[in-house]
C-alpha cells in the first residue's frame, strides 16, 4: 500500500487530482498540505496546514512513498520576490525534505510556460530546453525549478526519481484563473493573432496524468497536452470575440499601466504571443495516457463554463464527453437538489443511473447549433421539450427520468443560446424553430411536441452553486463572426402538439412532478400510446 503527500492540495489542480488519488485502492493514505481550507474531504485524506518553505516538511513527508508538488504562486503578486521565495525556495525545500524523509518518487507540476513562447517549433518536444525569462515571473520560476531539479538529479543518481509534468491550459469546474478570463473576454490583442495558439485539456485528463505519473517511476520532463492546438482566430470565431493586432511593446506598456492603476489583475509579465504547442507523445508512450478530447472541443467547454455564448453550427458544440465537463457544475447542483428536495429525489431515482442513461445529440438548424439530451424509454412515443429562460436541459433530468421509466423517450432541447446550444438567446421565434427542427428529424413518427405556457424566467431551485450555463454573461460580442445560419430550413410542423403546465414549473421538484403527470395524461388523450413502466 502507498502513502502520497500532495503540496498545494487546496489549489485548483489539487482539487482536481485528489479525487483520482483517493479512488485508487492501492493508495491507502493521502496527506494534503495547504494553507487554505480544503475543498475535498475523504476518510483516506489527512489535511495538514503547512508552508512549503518550512523544514517541518521533512517530518510530514516521513513515511510517504510519493510526493506530488503542486504548490506554486500563479496569480500575480506585486512583490515578485515574495512569489519567487515560494516558487523557487519552496520547491527546492520540498525536494530536499522529500529526499531526507526517504521518499522514493516525486511528481512536480511544471508548465508549458516553462518553454517560453517564441521561436519554438510546432509541436514542441521535451528536447527543447526550458528558457528563463526574468521579465515574466511565472515563466521564469517554472523554468528555474526545472533547472534545479535537473541539477539535483545529476547530483543524486538513483536516490529519488522526479517526474516534471508540463500541462497546457486546464479547463474544468474546479479551475478558474485570469488567463481563462482573458481568453473568454469580449476582446483580446496579440502581436500577431494569426501566429498565436493555445492548447486546452480537461481537468480530468490532467488529473489522470498526475495519477499515472505518481504510480510509476518516471524521471525527467514530460509534456501533458492534447495532440492538436487551437489558433487564436479559431477561438475568437467560436465566441464572437474581437481580436486585434498590436505591437508587443505597446501591449506590455498598457498592461503595466493598468496593473499599476489596479484596473487589470495582471502586468506585462503575462503578455505573450500565445503558448507553446506541446507534443505529448513521450508521456503517452511511457504511461498509456491519451487525451480524451481535442483542444478545440475543450475550448468550447471553457467558453460555456465562463457563461459565454458559442457562435456557429453544430460543429462548434462540444462532443458528448466534453459536454459533461461543461455540465459538471450542474451535475453537482443536481445531486444536492436530489438530496434536499424529496420530489426531485423521487422523480430522478438513482442520480448516477439517470445520468449514465443520458445521450447527447446535436443538430444544425436555421437558428444555430442545437444541443439536446435524450432519455430513452421503451414502448412509448418520443416527446420533444424545449428549455429556455435561466435553465437548461440538465436540470430537467428528474422530469425526463420519470417519463423514461414510464416508457417515453424524452428529448430535452437546449433552445438557442441556452445550455450547450449556440445562437441568439431570448427570441420566442428562435425557441420554436429549434424545437420544431429537432422534432422534424426524430425517427419516431408519433413524436409529440410538448409546449409549456408562459415564459421561463427563474433559475432552478437547486441548492446554490456556480454554473456558467445559468449565469449567462455574453457581454459585447461580434455576431457577424461565425454566427452560422446552418441547417435546413424548418419544414412546417406536422408533429402532434400538446400544451401542458407552466414553464416556470420546471424550477421546482413539485412543478416537474406536475408537468410529468400532465404530459402522461396529454399523451394518452391524443391517442399516442404510453406504456406504464
TrEMBL record:
Pfam families: Epimerase. InterPro entries: AB_hydrolase_fold (IPR029058), Epimerase_deHydtase (IPR001509), Lipid_A_modif_metabolic_enz (IPR050177), NAD(P)-bd_dom_sf (IPR036291). Residues 4-225 form the NAD-dependent epimerase/dehydratase domain. It comes from Williamsia herbipolensis. It comes from the Bacteria. Gene3D superfamilies: alpha/beta hydrolase, NAD(P)-binding Rossmann-like Domain. This is NAD-dependent epimerase/dehydratase family protein. Signal peptide: none annotated.
Amino acid at each position: 500500500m502507498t502513502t502520497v503527500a500532495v503540496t498545494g492540495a487546496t489549489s485548483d489542480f489539487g482539487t482536481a487530482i485528489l479525487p483520482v488519488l483517493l479512488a485508487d485502492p492501492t493508495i491507502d493514505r493521502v496527506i494534503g498540505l495547504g494553507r487554505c481550507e480544503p475543498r475535498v474531504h475523504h476518510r483516506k485524506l489527512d489535511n495538514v496546514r503547512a508552508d512549503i518553505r518550512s523544514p517541518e516538511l521533512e517530518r510530514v513527508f516521513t513515511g510517504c512513498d510519493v510526493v506530488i508538488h503542486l504548490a506554486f504562486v500563479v496569480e500575480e503578486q506585486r512583490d515578485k520576490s515574495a512569489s519567487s521565495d515560494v516558487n523557487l525556495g519552496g520547491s527546492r525545500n520540498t525536494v530536499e525534505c522529500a529526499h531526507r524523509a526517504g521518499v522514493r518518487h516525486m511528481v512536480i507540476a511544471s508548465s508549458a510556460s516553462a518553454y517560453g513562447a517564441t521561436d519554438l517549433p510546432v509541436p514542441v518536444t521535451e528536447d527543447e530546453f526550458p528558457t528563463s525569462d526574468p521579465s515574466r515571473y511565472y515563466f521564469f520560476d517554472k523554468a528555474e525549478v526545472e533547472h534545479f531539479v535537473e541539477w539535483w538529479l545529476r547530483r543524486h543518481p538513483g536516490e529519488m526519481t522526479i517526474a516534471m509534468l508540463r500541462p497546457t491550459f486546464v479547463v474544468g469546474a474546479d479551475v478558474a484563473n485570469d488567463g481563462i478570463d482573458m481568453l473568454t473576454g469580449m476582446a483580446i490583442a496579440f502581436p500577431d493573432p494569426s501566429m498565436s495558439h493555445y492548447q486546452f485539456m480537461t481537468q480530468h485528463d490532467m488529473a489522470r496524468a498526475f495519477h499515472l505519473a505518481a504510480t510509476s517511476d518516471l524521471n525527467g520532463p514530460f509534456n501533458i497536452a492534447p495532440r492538436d492546438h487551437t489558433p487564436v482566430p479559431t477561438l475568437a470565431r467560436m465566441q464572437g470575440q474581437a481580436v486585434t493586432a498590436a505591437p508587443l511593446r505597446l501591449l506590455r506598456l498598457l498592461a503595466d499601466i493598468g496593473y499599476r492603476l489596479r484596473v487589470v489583475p495582471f502586468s506585462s509579465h503575462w503578455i505573450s504571443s500565445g503558448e507553446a504547442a506541446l507534443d505529448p507523445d513521450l508521456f503517452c508512450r511511457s504511461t498509456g495516457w491519451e487525451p480524451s478530447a481535442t483542444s478545440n472541443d475543450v475550448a468550447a467547454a471553457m467558453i460555456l463554463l465562463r457563461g459565454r455564448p458559442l457562435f456557429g453550427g453544430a460543429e462548434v458544440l462540444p462532443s458528448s464527453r466534453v459536454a459533461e465537463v461543461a455540465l459538471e457544475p450542474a451535475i453537482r447542483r443536481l445531486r444536492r437538489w436530489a438530496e434536499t428536495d424529496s420530489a426531485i429525489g423521487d422523480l430522478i431515482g438513482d442520480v448516477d443511473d439517470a445520468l449514465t442513461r443520458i445521450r447527447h445529440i446535436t443538430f444544425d438548424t436555421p437558428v444555430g447549433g442545437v444541443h439536446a439530451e435524450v432519455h430513452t424509454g421503451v414502448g412509448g412515443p418520443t416527446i420533444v421539450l424545449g428549455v429556455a429562460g435561466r435553465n437548461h436541459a440538465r436540470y430537467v433530468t428528474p422530469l425526463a427520468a420519470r417519463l423514461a421509466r414510464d416508457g417515453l423517450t424524452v428529448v430535452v432541447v437546449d433552445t438557442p443560446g441556452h445550455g450547450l446550444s449556440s445562437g441568439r438567446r431570448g427570441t420566442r421565434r428562435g425557441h420554436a424553430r429549434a424545437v420544431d427542427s429537432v422534432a422534424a428529424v426524430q425517427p419516431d413518427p408519433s413524436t409529440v411536441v410538448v409546449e409549456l405556457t408562459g415564459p421561463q424566467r427563474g433559475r432552478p431551485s437547486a441548492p446554490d452553486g456556480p454554473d456558467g450555463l445559468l449565469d449567462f454573461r455574453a457581454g459585447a460580442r461580434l455576431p457577424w463572426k461565425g454566427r452560422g445560419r446552418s441547417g435546413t430550413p424548418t419544414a412546417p410542423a406536422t408533429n402532434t402538439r400538446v400544451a401542458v403546465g407552466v414553464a416556470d414549473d420546471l424550477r421546482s421538484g413539485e412543478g416537474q412532478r406536475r408537468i410529468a403527470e400532465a404530459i402522461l395524461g396529454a399523451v394518452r388523450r391524443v391517442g399516442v400510446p404510453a406504456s406504464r413502466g
